[in-house]
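Q&A log
Question type: sequence-to-structure
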Amino acid sequence: MEGDHLTGMQSGGTPRPLLAELKDVLFIAGRPRVRMIFQRDAEGRVIGFIDRREGEDLVWTRVP
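Response status: OK
Response body:
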């Protein structure tokens, strides 16, 4: 959180505002082919994260 919004950055990069496209889908303005997608279980807990770039998915799974 930075003020009233989320920011994100890659290692050594500049923080950029993360914008919500849908409830669990975030994007960065100016990067139309990149999405950050949170996966949830039936109770609504985050169980995974997908970093989608140019249609290719990098899937992260939460380890209990």
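Response note: The chain has no helices and six strands.
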